[in-house]
Amino acid sequence: MTTSEREWWRRPFATFQTNLQEIDAGMDVPAVLDTIESVGADTWLLNVGGIVSFHPSDLPFQTPTSYLATRPSGDLVGDAVAAAHARGVRVIARIDLSKVAEPIAREHPDWLFVSARGEPQVYESLHSTCPNRAYWQTHAVDIVGEVLDRYPVDGFFFNWFSFNAHDYAGRDHGVCHCEDCARAYAAFGDGARLPVDADDPEHPRWQEFTRACIADLGGRIAEEIERRSPGTPLVLQRGTALPYGEVGNSLGRVAWPHASGDVVSVRKSLAPEVPVLVLLVSFLDIGYRFAADQTERFLQYLLQAIARGGNPCVYVMGDPTRVPSPHLEAVGEVVRLFRWHADVYDGLHPAAPIALVRPSLTSRSAGYEGDGDAALALDEYRGLHRALQERHRPFDVVDRSALAGITAEALERFELVVLPALGPLGASVSAVLDEYVRRGGHLLLTGDTALDGGAVEVSTHPATTLSDTERHGSALRSVYALPSPPPPGGLPSSFSAPVLPVLGELRRFAWRDDAVPFGAVTTAAPWGPPEKSFGHRVTEDPMGATRRSGRGAVTALAVTLGAAYSAAGTREVRDELVRRVDDLARPWVETDLPEQVEVVVARSGDRLVLHVLNQTGVRDGTVLRHVPLREVSIRIRTVDAVGRVDLLVDGTSQRSERDAAGVVTVTIRHLGLFEVVVLAP
């Protein structure tokens, strides 16, 4: 068998994940495979071991479910692998080491999580384990070895492969303080003490420590799998040849409708050759696993995943013949198209001209715990994301953490890099960005990006220093930004449209002599009662400035327009943001599509591929049925010679050539949920 045949996961594949309950040990395997194949999937992600094993394990630290007695063979895994392989369906073994049963916990207390108060982490009689202890460090490879000795599985997936402070009930147990963690952390941090929880100043360094521990452990398990079964992948969230991301709804917060696209984009924007598995959760919430999420939302997640080059995984709870899902028929139509056009999706990689850098997400940066700086950064990012998407400016998402090892060469495929409210970048990243600009790249900086105290880190920045920052609240109430300020000397509270609210933060810079400022900011004035709501004056502070450097340019905004768009949602704010983007990167796409349609740009070999995603049904908190559109056109600026345009959903082709301006025009007669436009040379 060749390397390419062994490494099957480097080509497009679609997975069906059944998160089993113990009572599913007696499932009708052929019936389940019928469901998997009806959806168009060719891979089955199946529970095998860890918390509960679905095969008769001989290892003393595994707990085979008693429901195996309901099977004639007594072995679900053996039956499933044999039947799946007979149909050409691959099987990925799911293992979860995060918890052990009560008897194992009593026998091996030295494997368990210990809080700062010396207490275990227990949920429904299951005891949480610690990745630094022997169960993970030594016996993970024993579990993998037993599975490989018995079954020719096609991959391994480890669930909850991390240090976990929270249990399923949402209780925060803090940082593990077991003897093994204390010893390892002291060595890592030159004698440093373990933090207690996320509020501890030591917590950021502890996060670095846990990432290093997980990377080391994952690397050793991957090496053991490769030694015993060459080409068999280990699936973890990061650090392996086949990383995964997970997307699903969660009650208590408004779902980010572009989450699936972000999950894939941050993994492929700077590493297009890396395959990505995207777990798309079909149920409503972890506490309501048998209530289905809205089918239309699930379809949007699925489409975003494949549009940006991900491999979709339909993730259901339990035996699908026992717990029916309303998604499967509609999902099957999309997955089958993905499989039928494997030549297009094989090697599909991001090709947008704009990079939008996302703040690294944690529970704090998502705003769940009220962290002001992190919440503002996320609002600024999401406002920019919405503005670009709605105005059809294709972009790829880069995670903030990826900047640490980036090079100017890696950034050169982008005409523009947008960095929203990311805080200090450090000397090495700033130097790379400066080199990128001098080579012809462009930067749009917002919020506190590249600011360390009052110092400006990026030498190509339009400003020399930061002199003052005003944060949201009463200091900014009734302060406005004016893209087209009135001439000096006008009456107080005389404005020129548009008038934009200043929300989030306002910064005052000392601008360089060669910077070109634009717009202006007003002073605050009373906002009530109406009779007294006047007195605004236009200040000398601009909204921002642009400075050319080498062959590139940098624009810095003094106001957080992304956060303003997140909060206010007004067209004037959005269009001013996009105007600043267009000044730095000429639009690739012009279209008469409504704003609720997203255009994702990618490449597959020598073909340009556009996914046109109809999101007219997206609403706050849900996704409704889309509105079909007819006779829409897209004009694409490209350097490629184009001879034929294929519409994969419509099943038609049309001849098209670039005009004198280098623009190719494509007409979509009927746009339903989505279309895939392939421009072939």
UniProtKB/TrEMBL annotation:
Keywords linked to the UniProt accession: Glycosidase, Hydrolase
Keyword Isomerase: no
Enzyme class: hydrolase
Stretches for region Disordered: 527-549
Gene3D superfamilies associated with the record: 3.40.50.880, Glycosidases
GO molecular function terms noted in the UniProt entry: beta-galactosidase activity
UniProt-listed InterPro entries: Class_I_gatase-like, GH, GHL6
Entry EC no(s): 3.2.1.23
Keyword Hydrolase: yes
Pfam families, per database record: GHL6 (PF14871)
Coiled-coil stretches noted in the UniProt entry, renumbered to this chain: none
Protein name: Beta-galactosidase
